[in-house]
Every structure is written in C-alpha cells, then in structure tokens.
C-alpha cells in the first residue's frame, strides 16, 4: 500500500510519540471532529482530559502527526482488558486543514507497527459508518467488520478488528 503514496505528499509529515506538550492538540483535534458529526460523551471527556493516566500509564501509546511541524493528527493505541483483543485503535483525528495529506494512513501504520512490537495479535476499533473516509482507511489498513460487541458510545454503529 505505501508504494501508492506519493512521497512528496508525505515529506512534510512526521509521526512522533506523544509528549505532554501535545495534550491540548490531542484533546482539541478529537473534540473538533466528534462535535462536527456527533456529541461529545462522558467517556470522550475522560480519555481526552487524562490521556497519560488512561492510555499511556496503562500500557498504551499515542502518536502525533506533525504536518510542517504542527500537530494536526493524533491516534491512540489503548490497552484492552479483553480476552479477544490486546489493543484498541482509538481517538484518531486529523485536522480538516491536513486531510488528504495521508496523516490518517501514517498514524494507522504507526499504531499497527507499535501493536506488533508490543506483541499484540489483534486490534479492535469502533467507528460510525457516516465517517466514510475513516471507514475506507480502516479497510485499507486491513481491518474487517465484526458484529455483536457491546459499546459504551452512542455514536458507534460499526466495529472492526485486525489480526496481526
């Protein structure tokens, strides 16, 4: 897949690991997209206000996509306490200013590679089919739709998994 990406399109993109200086970007980028399509929920506020405690300290990762040095994309790999899944791909957000610049693809690949490095065998995600570009991205990354899992979010109408 990466061969299909024009290198010039991604030369201004750098994927870095989360640092506390990116906390506001992590929160605001997610609030922006969620509020554009849905309503912020209690779980959103919890995770976005406490990414260190609820993601990083529990064995997860957060990646930040810098476009021309600015944090314009984010994505988390959340450790799950689940017999079927090791991690969840969550809180992926790309600023409208940077959409079409392959930030989502690069963040997704960073999450998948990180999960493999951490010894994961399966990644889970939740989304909404109204988010067509995101759903298409997940399929391109290799995720497949699954049915029947409980979710704590009202907006979720599709669940997917990736076998690593």
What oligomeric state is this?
single chain
Round the Cα radius of gyration to an integer and report it: 15 Å
Low-confidence stretches: 1-6
Mean pLDDT: 93
CATH superfamily: Gcn5-related N-acetyltransferase (GNAT)
Strand content: 25-35%
What's the number of structural domains?
1
Name of the CATH architecture: 3-Layer(aba) Sandwich
User: What is the terminal separation in angstroms?
Assistant: 16 Å
Amount of helix? 25-40%
Strand order of the largest sheet: 1-2-3-4-5-7-6
Strand-pairing-aware structural class: alpha+beta
Supply the number of helical segments: 6
Q: Tell me about the biggest sheet?
A: 7 strands, mixed
Q: What's the total number of strands? A: 7
Order of helices and strands: HEHHHEEEHEHEE
CATH fold annotation: Aminopeptidase
Shape: globular
Q: So what's the CATH class?
A: Alpha Beta
List the helices and strands and how they pair.
Elements: H1 7-10, E1 13-17, H2 23-37, H3 42-49, H4 51-54, E2 61-67, E3 70-79, E4 87-94, H5 103-117, E5 122-127, H6 132-141, E6 144-146, E7 158-163
Parallel strand pairs: 4-5
Antiparallel strand pairs: 1-2, 2-3, 3-4, 5-7, 6-7
């Amino acid at each position: 897949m990466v061969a299909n990406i024009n290198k010039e399109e991604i030369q201004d993109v750098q994927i870095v690991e989360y640092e506390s200086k990116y906390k506001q970007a992590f929160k605001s980028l997610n609030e922006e997209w969620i509020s554009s399509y849905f309503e912020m929920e209690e779980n959103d506020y919890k995770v976005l206000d406490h990414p260190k405690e609820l993601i990083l300290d529990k064995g997860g990762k957060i990646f930040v996509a810098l476009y021309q040095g600015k944090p314009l994309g984010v994505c988390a790999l959340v450790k799950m306490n689940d017999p079927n899944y090791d991690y969840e791909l969550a809180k992926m957000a790309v600023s409208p200013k940077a959409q079409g610049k392959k930030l989502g693809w690069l963040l997704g690949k960073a999450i998948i590679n990180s999960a493999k490095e951490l010894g994961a065998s399966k990644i889970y995600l939740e989304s909404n089919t109204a988010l067509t570009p995101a759903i298409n991205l997940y399929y391109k990354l290799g995720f497949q739709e699954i049915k029947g899992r409980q979710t704590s979010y009202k907006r979720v109408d599709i669940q997917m998994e990736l076998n690593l």
